[in-house]
Design a protein that fits this description.
Blueprint (H helix, E strand, L loop, with lengths): L4 H5 L8 E4 L8 E6 L5 E9 L2 E10 L4 H16 L4 H17 L3 H12 L5 H14 L15 H12 L4 H22 L36 H8 L6 H12 L5 H5 L6 E2 L4 E4 L12 E4 L4 H10 L20 H14 L7 H15 L3 H7 L7 H4 L7 H19 L2
Antiparallel strand pairs: 1-2, 2-3, 3-4, 5-6, 6-7
Helix pairs in contact: 6-7, 9-11, 13-16, 14-16
């Protein structure tokens, strides 16, 4: 028999469901209508492949009418002529659609990476990384770019855009972050939790490791001589905030970079001549706040910086974001450019801490008091747990001796 709309509409329910088969070519599959006990009518195709009889549904009538059913049957016939099982073909298509829908874009992958590091990395590193991604990656990646479409040439373009503007150290950081991002994506897709699930990112190799370039190396034992301190202190070709940071970092006895560069107006008490570093910005957090005495030479510098504070009260505000602190790479690169221009052995902000520790000894401050002032890690209970006002007399004496040494050597 051959189906017509009229004949299908006329089909009635029976006590048991039944199937009607349309005549046709056996090798192309045969169109059928199954009528259930409730009277529901379903189109399907019965076919044979690899010696097995199978059935594939086409949909319920009248949602799928006879014309649509014949169109679907025709497509099935083409697959059968190529010895392709229509059921397997449908499953593969559905799987591909599901996997495609599950995959994330590069921008979504960057967001996922930020969430991933938020509970695993140090706060200062998280902040630095998020700013780096926002400035150097996101603006140069198309919103609809998929991770598996991201190529080594695209990565090179991003890295060398930073490198070629002279920010070689920041370019190294961009490369490092890109490598971490790709590693995160690969590890996630290959994790036990994702076994037999669609890949979200589908990155196969971490090709960032193949991108190499030379960057300035810090030997780890660099400290500035008295002559070098004098030169940088009196330099008239350093950016304002860079030079103010260098002076303040020295006058505060070499506290850690983020403790000074990430400081706020509220951390400074001019009346009582103290600088309080909150535990949230301290490396050894269990000790609590750390208080550094202020010498007279530091106060005018602090007051001048206060007048130019960011909208959130930060002493070293970001150029483009008034609520954020400037990135440490800003002063790092400014120092490196100044060193190259003035034929000074390169140094970075961390080297100022080592400079203070070394020259304070020469100035006459003993090692115990240098350690107390710079809050070096101690492992005995009494050193870890102490009141933040302990040793204030010793710290103030050390700062005064150190201030005089600096003034004797900088010429002002």
């Amino acid at each position: 028999m051959n189906f017509t709309d009229k004949s299908i509409k006329a089909l009635k329910a029976k006590e048991k469901r039944y199937v009607l088969t349309e005549s046709g070519n056996y090798g192309e599959g045969r169109l059928q209508v199954r009528v259930s006990e409730s009277g529901a009518k379903t189109f399907r195709v019965q076919y044979h492949i690899n010696g097995k009889r199978k059935v594939i549904g086409l949909g319920n009538y009248p949602i799928v009418d006879l014309k649509k059913a014949r169109s679907k049957h025709a497509k099935i016939a083409v697959l059968l002529s190529d010895n392709i099982d229509p059921q397997e073909h449908r499953l593969q298509n559905e799987k591909a659609k599901f996997e495609s829908a599950a995959k994330k874009t590069m921008h979504q992958m960057l967001d996922d990476f930020n969430v991933y590091i938020s509970t695993r990395w140090a706060e200062s590193t998280i902040d630095r990384t998020e700013k780096l991604i926002k400035r150097n990656l996101t603006p140069f990646i198309a919103p609809d770019l998929m991770p598996d479409e991201f190529t080594i040439d695209m990565a090179r373009d991003i890295i060398y855009r930073v490198y070629n503007r002279g920010a070689k150290e920041q370019a190294r950081l961009v490369r490092s972050v890109l490598m971490s991002i790709l590693k995160f994506a690969i590890d996630f897709d290959n994790s036990p939790e994702q076994y037999k699930k669609p890949s979200l990112y589908d990155i196969k190799t971490n090709f960032i490791r193949d991108i190499n370039f030379e960057t300035p190396k810090n030997t780890g034992d660099r400290w500035l001589s008295e002559e070098e301190i004098k030169k940088v202190w009196n330099a008239d070709d350093l950016p304002y905030y860079t030079q103010q940071y260098i002076k303040l970092a020295l006058l505060l006895g070499g506290q850690r970079v983020n403790e000074v560069y990430g400081s706020y107006v509220s951390d400074f008490d001019i009346k009582n001549k103290t600088f309080t570093i909150p535990a949230s910005r301290i490396k050894v957090k269990q000790r609590g706040d750390h208080i550094v005495p202020l010498c007279e030479t530091a106060i005018p510098i602090i007051q001048e910086l206060m007048q130019q504070q960011g909208s959130a009260g930060q002493m070293f505000p970001h150029r483009d974001n008034p609520t954020a602190t400037a990135h440490v790479s800003t002063i790092r690169m400014a120092i490196l450019r100044w060193c190259e221009k003035n034929d000074v052995l390169p140094f970075n902000p961390r080297d100022l801490r080592r400079t203070c520790k070394t020259l304070m000894g020469k100035a006459g401050v003993d090692k115990i008091n240098r350690d107390i002032l710079q809050q070096h890690n101690k492992f005995d209970v009494s050193s870890v747990h102490y009141d933040r006002y302990d040793y204030m007399k010793e710290k103030r004496q050390s700062i005064e001796v150190w201030e005089q040494f600096l003034l004797d050597n900088v010429g002002k």
